[in-house]
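It is worth pausing here to work through a concrete case rather than discussing structure prediction in the abstract. The textbook approach is simple: state the sequence, then state the predicted structure, then interpret. We follow exactly that order.
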Amino acid sequence: MNRPRVPAAGIQWAALAGAIGLAATATALERDPLPPRVPIGKLADAKKTTNPIAATPEANARGTALFEGKGTWVKCHGLSGSGNGSFGKNLKPSPRNLTNAEWQKSRTDGELFWVIKYGSPATGMVSLIPSDIDVNEAWHIVRYLRTLEGP
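Step two, the predicted structure:
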């Protein structure tokens, strides 16, 4: 049986195209982290809401402890906050990568708080106030989330 011969350069280009396709697929769920998760009718108020917890080492430590130990944060977002928690692997869409610098810059503290309080429609993010944490704890977690910004 005679098969057509594919030049080595053709194979290299095919491999490169395949690798690019796999990379695009692997990042598809986090491709566009910028659309807000707060419903449009609530967005203006959420954006205006400011964090009453000052950025101090103590506040960050409390936020860290809450993130790592209370609610479902680590189970979904992972210890690093990158969205790789054990439960998150089964969620569609996958949990938000909280270390994404572009996302961090585009969301206000009030928006993060709103999602913690009310959940995120069409995702696995459920409301955590008052079932898992209280309002003060939520603000501490928001303060901690701001320390996760990646490159």
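Step three, interpretation. Residues 38-145 form a domain with the Cytochrome Bc1 Complex; Chain D, domain 2 fold (CATH 1.10.760.10). The chain has one domain: 38-145.
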